[in-house]
Design goal:
The complex is a heterodimer of chains A (395) and B (170). Chain A is 17% helix and 31% strand. Chain A is α+β, with helices and mostly antiparallel strands and 395 residues long. Chain A folds into two domains: 30 residues; 253 residues, no CATH class. Chain B is mainly α and 170 residues long. Chain B has one domain: Butyryl-CoA Dehydrogenase, subunit A, domain 3 (Up-down Bundle), CATH 1.20.140.160. The longest helix of chain B has 26 residues. The N terminus of chain B is likely disordered. The chains are: A alpha+beta (395), B mainly alpha (170). At the A-B interface, helix 1, helix 2, helix 4, helix 5 and strand 15 of A face helix 1, helix 2, helix 3, helix 5 and helix 6 of B.
Chain lengths: 395, 170
């Protein structure tokens, strides 16, 4: 069965959401009437609120010490946390005719057949290698091994996974491109303790680590009773990370100093975070109703997909430029002969690379030259459970 | 639903309304896919909208609010499903007052979906009902894109055991 076949059956089973317009209008009306601190009338709701308030007071008494422990800790600078060298210059963008593109092929066939994460044999399998766009051949790289590189772990059976290929270190890393330090010496990763089994994810702490590939030194930057989000990134002003309480609750955002481990709220001003107007600017200025974000370009602009995957539906991939400007990567009809179905994007200077989900093509896009297709060979084709992903710049 | 309103800051309210109204259609569709009930999906999306309002200052600067809102919707759906856990225990019967899902086609698949864990059902809904890229599925579920791919495929594997006739060769 192809993915589209399953999608069709799934949607037929679930059915269309009835009265979508009416439901949305009613929800919008609720928001329209919402005060800054919603206080809804009605005996049952009022009783729930009173009971909830009492519960919060009781819980605060019981859990106070735990909550305090969960506050971010300021860790002492670790030995070896010396100021970093000046960042090496990023390699120049390589000529397409002579470069190799790092690609990881994820094989989820065993994972789909397994029932729990406890069974090691059901873990996804990843093959890292390079594709020369000039020939289209995927060649596995035997050096893509974990070796001594530590990697993020939440489950007992989590395995090493090559998530990027660093053009300066010339190594496969178990961290995404934006989790590598600006000087390309180190990367960040997470550990959960205790590690979970497939039957649950209860944990006591999570910790943020920095591993220096050039010296082999590992430092624990921050340990917290909250869950540190996977989407932490290493920016020029520090490591941006979010946390969620272990039992669920509101997310908080932090900036962690990669040298001292000092943790400060990401938005310390009052009120924290952007105004709703700013948030509107990041999303609705492109007028999207259906679709999603599929990464960012080299300038930090969102890469967006508008449209559904219904056969025959119109879709558009575009980079969200300033002032609502759409820089179109490609638009077409789902199922058309062009078959543009990118599995994420990799930034390479002003270029964007992608592999097609079905393993048949590599795509290169620039604003100046548009979209180009390169045939891909050496990767299983049209296999629902095998997905190739470009994980770094061409070099 | 009746609301006793104190006058909020007009500019703040207007901009939030503009934001939330663009997010509501996707949120409602997600709630419907997760709950399989129009009234419950409406309750979920209304509650999620209010929660989003209360938490609007927690949006990170420059961040995309949609994964944030979808997470709120998904959490609300989980809470509502917990409150009617017995309906799942009884094999997918719908609670009193809830409209039955109209399509007869795919009844076995629907029941199998109802027996999946919240996170597996959410991963499938985001991928196959909302057509989201794995990058965004990961953002909603708080995991990496690679982990989102693995989660979707694991969920498919669990479904296949339940309804092999619907997922033959998948």
């Amino acid at each position: 069965m192809h993915e589209e076949e399953f999608r069709t059956r799934y949607r037929a089973a679930v059915g269309d959401a009835p009265d979508e317009l009416g439901a949305v209008q009613r929800a919008a009306a609720v928001v329209h009437r919402a005060p800054p601190r919603p206080e809804r009338a009605g005996a049952p709701r009022a009783m729930i609120l009173v009971a909830g308030a009492l519960a919060v007071l009781v819980l605060a008494g019981l859990l106070g010490p735990r909550v305090l422990r969960a506050m971010p800790r300021v860790t002492t600078p670790a030995a070896g946390g010396a100021p970093r060298d000046a960042p090496p210059a990023a390699p120049a963008v390589a000529a397409v005719a002579a470069c190799r593109l790092p690609v990881v092929v994820g094989d989820y066939r065993a994972a789909a057949a397994g029932q729990t994460r406890d069974d090691q044999s059901t873990q996804p399998k990843y093959t890292a290698g390079f594709v020369a766009p000039a020939t289209g051949d995927f060649v596995a790289d035997p050096s893509a091994q974990a070796g001594s590189l530590p990697f993020s772990r939440a489950y007992v059976n989590d395995n090493w996974e090559p998530e990027s290929y660093d053009p300066v270190l010339k190594r496969w890393l178990p961290a995404r491109v934006r989790q590598v330090s600006p000087d390309h010496h180190s990367y960040l990763y997470f550990l959960q303790s205790p590690l979970a089994t497939g039957k649950g994810s209860a944990f006591d702490t999570t910790s943020l680590h920095v591993y220096d590939v050039t010296t082999g030194k590992d430092r624990t930057l921050w340990t917290t009773h909250d869950q540190i989000g996977w989407d932490a990134t290493w920016e020029s002003d520090g490591i941006h990370a979010s946390t969620t309480p272990g039992g669920g609750g509101r997310m908080a955002s932090w900036v962690v100093d990669p040298v001292s481990g000092t943790v400060v709220p990401a938005a310390p001003s009052s009120p924290p975070g952007p105004s709703p107007a700013e948030a509107v600017a990041t999303f609705s200025e492109y007028g999207m109703t259906k679709g999603g974000q599929d990464g960012t370009d080299g300038a930090g602009h969102p890469i967006l997909l508008e449209g559904s995957r219904d056969p025959g539906a119109h879709y558009q991939y575009f980079v969200g430029g300033p002032n609502g400007r759409r820089i179109v990567i490609h638009e077409g009809t789902m199922g058309d002969a062009f078959d543009f179905d990118p599995a994420g994007f990799a930034v390479d200077g002003d270029r964007l690379w992608s592999a097609n989900y079905d393993g048949t093509a590599i795509w290169l896009w620039t604003e100046k030259d548009g979209l180009k297709r390169y045939p891909l060979t050496g990767v299983p084709r049209h296999d629902f459970y095998v997905i190739p992903t470009v994980v770094g710049p061409c070099q | 639903m009746t609301i006793t309103a104190a006058p909020p800051d007009a500019a703040d309210t207007a901009s939030f309304e503009a934001l939330i109204e663009s997010l509501l259609p996707g949120g409602y569709r997600l709630a419907y896919a997760m709950l399989q009930s129009q009234p419950e999906a409406e309750d979920a999306i209304q509650e999620a909208a209010l929660r989003a309002w209360a938490a609007r200052h927690r949006l990170r600067p420059g961040s995309d609010p949609r994964p944030w809102f979808m997470t709120i919707v998904a959490n609300q759906c989980r809470q509502q499903r917990r409150s009617r856990w017995w309906s799942v225990r009884k094999g997918g019967d719908l609670p009193e007052g809830v409209q039955p899902a109209p399509p007869v086609e795919g009844a076995d698949l629907r029941r199998a979906l109802a027996r999946l864990s919240h996170r597996d059902r959410l991963a499938l809904a985001l991928r196959y009902y909302l057509d989201l890229p794995f990058e965004e599925i990961g953002r909603v579920q708080g995991i990496s894109p690679a982990a989102a791919k693995a989660r979707v495929h694991r969920a498919l594997g669990r479904l296949r055991l339940e309804v092999p006739e619907d997922l033959n060769d998948a």
